[in-house]
Structures are given as C-alpha cells and as structure tokens.
Amino acid sequence: MSQTDTMAAGSQRIISREELLQLKKEMNARALTRRRVRTGTLLVANIIMAVVILLPLLYAISIAFMPSGELFTTDLNLFPKNPTIQNFVDAFTNVPLLKFILNSFIMAGCITIGQIITCSLAAFAFSFLEFKGKGLLFMVVMATMMVPGEATIISNYLTVGNLGMLDTYPVLIIPYLTSAMGIFLFRQFYMTFPISLYESAKLDGCGNLRFIVKILIPLTKSAIGAMAVYTFINAWNMYMWPLLVTGSNDMRTVQIGISMLNSVDSQSITMMIAGVVMIIIPSISIFIVGQKQLIRGMFSGAVKG
Q1: Between vectors from CA 67 to CA 87 and to CA 271, what angle results, nearest 5°?
Q2: CATH at 114
Q3: Of 137, 157, 163, 186, whose CB neighbour count within 10 A is largest?
C-alpha cells in the first residue's frame, strides 16, 4: 500500500469517528426532545385533571366571596363581580363558629393522640408478645372493621346516656380512642422489624414500655404520621355522633355548626358556603403537610426487608 493510500484510509477513519460523534449527539438531542415532550404532556394532563377535580372547591370559594344577589340570577356567574367578605363576617356573627372550631380541634386532637397511643400498644402486643389466643384475638379485632358504625350508635348512645356523659367532651372523645384500622396499620409496620431486636432489648434489661418509647416510636415516624393525618381528618369531619350526643352550642362541633347556618332564605346559601370554606382549611392544610407521611406510612408495611 502506498503512502497516499494510507493517508486516505486514516482520513476516512477520522471522518467516520466524527460522524459517529455527531450521530450520537443527534440521537441524544432527539431523546431529550421526546422526554421533554412527554413530560410536558403529562404536566398539562395533570393540570387539567387537577382543575377538573378541584372545580367544586374553586367554585365554592368563588361563591363565598359572592353577594347573594349575584348567585341567584339567570346569568352564569363563575366569579364574583363585586367580591365581598360580608359572608364570612355573617358566618361568625350568626353562630359561635369560633367555639365550634375550638371544640372540633379539641375532639380531633384528643382522638388522634389517643388512637396513636392505644393502637401502638395493642400492635406491639400482637407483634412481639406471645400469649395464648393471640391469633384469634387479632381476628376478632379485625372483624370489628366489618361492623358499620350505624349498627352500634344507638347502643353507644344508651350507654353514655346512662353514665351521664351527654353533652361533654368525654362523650365526643372516649368512644373513638382506638380503632381496628390503626392497630392493623401499626402491626403491619412492626412486623417488618426482626424479633431479635426485641429479644436483644430484653436481654439488656429494657422493659416493654421503654422499648416502645425509645426504640419503636423513633423507627415508626412514618406510620405515626400516616395515622395522625388519617385520624385527625376523620375526627374533624365527624357528624352523626356529635349531632346525637351534643345539645348546646358549648359542645357542638363545626360540622353541626355549619348546618345551623342554613335557613329558608337565599342569603344563607352564600353565608353557609363561606363557613364551609373556612372549616375545610384545617383538614386540607393537614393533608397537604402530611400527604407524604400518609402515603409512606400506608405502604411501609406492605413489603418486608
């Protein structure tokens, strides 16, 4: 092979290498474009879906700032033409809404703390302790989840009535200080821990209560967060039981108080919606803050290891 042929072959190899690099850059650019288009499409679809799902809430907020004269017209008013906060002022003046909110916070907070304590203790017993009939007792606890609350509400009412607990904070809190769902959630989380962890703690002289406080609770923050969010929202939205056992404004909760804003005149509609918007703010805020803990806690016990 002559020197001229060798130089031509070297030049051909250099050109091929450059073409390969250029082709790789073009492929990366096309892949990046496809990825951006896919991400943008998913983002737009999520925004549209979020708007559709939140449309009732957004419209309720619009009605809350809308004078009653604008709501009951032949025109489709999606947004208030003359925004006003008078509906919120009327909601606070017509009923003691602040007292109702305080009652709901006390009830929901105590129920949440109580369920975390009782459910974690029961789940510890079902997970780490060995006693006769443990499996059968756990089945009975889980079977209570199939009993609807309406089936026991009358017997519970007669019980608390005979005890003289009606129209008090204890009657709102005590019947809901534990739940089968909470016991199941904590037990599934505790089952992911090896039994050797408990045995080692016992050998070191650690008691059961100290083991729960010092070891289990720090390791189960996600389950506690999920339980707290789930329980607080359920207790905050409770309606039937507070309606049945309370009879004075000093003990009523927000869900009962909002129904008191409704009357026969059309003006009460915007005022009631304003009250609804105010009372859903705590539950939505807690859900937004604790949604990651809720999701992580719900799925944390699904997989071992």
Answers
A1: 30
A2: 1.10.3720.10
A3: 186
Say if residues 221 and 290 touch (Cβ distance below 8 Å): no
What letter represents residue 96's amino acid? Answer: P
Assess if residue 82 is contained within a domain: no
pLDDT value at residue 16: 67
Q: Which residues of the chain have pLDDT under 70?
A: 1-16, 74, 263-267, 293-305
Question: Number of structural domains, the chain?
Answer: 2
In contact, 260 and 248? CB cutoff 8 Å:
no
Predicted structure pTM score? 0.78
d(CA 107, CA 243) in angstroms, rounded, equals: 14
CB count, 10 Å around CB of 143? 10
How far, in Å, CA of 285 to CA of 290, rounded?
A: 8
Kindly provide the b/e burial profile for residues 208-219, where b requires at least 16 CB atoms within 10 angstroms of the residue's own CB: eeebbeebbeee
Predicted local distance difference test score (pLDDT) of residue 266:
47
State how far the Cα of 176 lies from the Cα of 159, in Å rounded to an integer.
14
Give yes or no: residues 32 and 155 share one domain: no
Per DSSP, the residues of 119-145 read HHHHHHHHHH---TTHHHHHHHHHHGG
